[in-house]
What we know:
361 residues
Amino acid sequence: MSNIESLPLYTENPSDEPITIDEEVLPPSYYDPPVGDTPVFFQNASPKGWSIIFNTRYYRNGDIFVGKDSIFKYTYFQRHGRNSEIDNLHRLGIGVPLFKVIVALCSPITARSVTFRIHSHNIQSGTSIDDNNNYYTFCQVKKSCYNGYNAFTFHFTPDPYQKSLNSKVVMFQDTNIPIYDYIYKGERHRWVDETVTPFFQQTEQIKFGFKHTSLLPSQISLCDYWSGYGDKLNNKHTIFSLFSSKFKTNTDGMFGIQRGDYYGTKPNAIFGLAKTSFNLGKLRLAELRIHDQTGLHDEYIEETDSFETYNSNFSLNQDSLVMICIATFLRMEKDIRYDISRKKVVKSWPEHTLKNKSNVK
């Protein structure tokens, strides 16, 4: 018993050195990413698939990357310039933006035009990998606002030299019910906003979160009241009455999510923004996890030992590229709503409080 060391004196300084308090740590940078665990919301995502990182906020220009560390590789390249290793990665589509998102204000003020320029496989010789000449317009989007819903029209150009491949997708967002519905390749799809569920309030890990599902034939969709032309719905009040008869509202005026009615097939994609206690959340980078449902790309990697991994821009199929463009607007809409709610809170502060805050430097 006498060999047992005594417990430390927590109430006293065990050394003669003075106790110092660390200075406040500066916010993390893209160049030196913070370390954090994966939020619970993403832990059920399939390990076989793509992780897409969104450096886009509000309706502003931004970049979209493939792979969690691609944005950091790209920042390193911008700071230190090119070398043989970086050039080799860039030729494989790694460490360079997949999309450059360009925003333009249209008339009327409610309509905004967004362009997605995609990284080309055919890099022009003698140019930098991120030169605009190595990107071409893949998608152009316009938002329209109507009574009770918003419409987003996506014009896709997969190959600028083959106009026969061009296509259009119109997504409808209900302003009362947390759903985004659209039709792609004849199938009805839906993004469900899960931010309003008790799960988010209990875990406090995610700022916003969405899950993607394909609807069953028996389910109601906003697209059921779309003629297939333009971006307007017919008999919108009929849709609202169908939904509102099944779903109860909560204190925020949003309709609660009923999984049996809102969801069709098992979600094959998860999209969200973690809070600042997590790696990407500290940098305000949203993440989209897409499950490789076919598994063909995963088999291709194993059989050929290909460098085109899930971190390569060239590994994505057409369906995934379309999903990425659509998911971008989920983030943009969330940012706008958050900004509006924040401004309402500021306006509700007493006038003397605002004056005091303005004097703080």
